[in-house]
Structure formats: structure tokens, C-alpha cells
Amino acid sequence: MRAHLDAEHAQAVCERFVEQRVLGVFFAPFESIEQRVDVNRRVTESLSEAGIPVTLLDRDITSFPRRSP
Length: 69
Description:
Elements: H1 2-20, E1 25-27, H2 36-49, E2 54-56
Parallel strand pairs: 1-2
Helix pairs in contact: 1-2
């Protein structure tokens, strides 16, 4: 249940950042929730589509050896 709430919270915060037109976001991608691939992709794509630069912290949103934009 906690993971579901974390994912919902991340999406809600992302939507607020888009509405507020922040200048950039530091994002530590989820690594220990089951739907991490989808959540990480949705968050980073939403921000990128809004023209908000995203700096990933600690890890990429894709598996090695692939790299996200």
C-alpha cells in the first residue's frame, strides 16, 4: 500500500511543478516499488514535455546499459 501512495504522491508533486512552471527538478528515481519503471517514466516525461529540465539523482530510470535522455 505504501508504494502505491508514494507513486501517487510523486505524480501529484510532478503536476504541481508543471503548474508552477518550476525552472528545474532533481529527481531520485524509485527503485524499490513494483511499478517503478512506469512511475519513473511518467514523472520524467511529464516534466520534460512541460519544458522542465530534470536532473536524475543516484540512478537512471532505465536499466544498464541503456541511458535515458
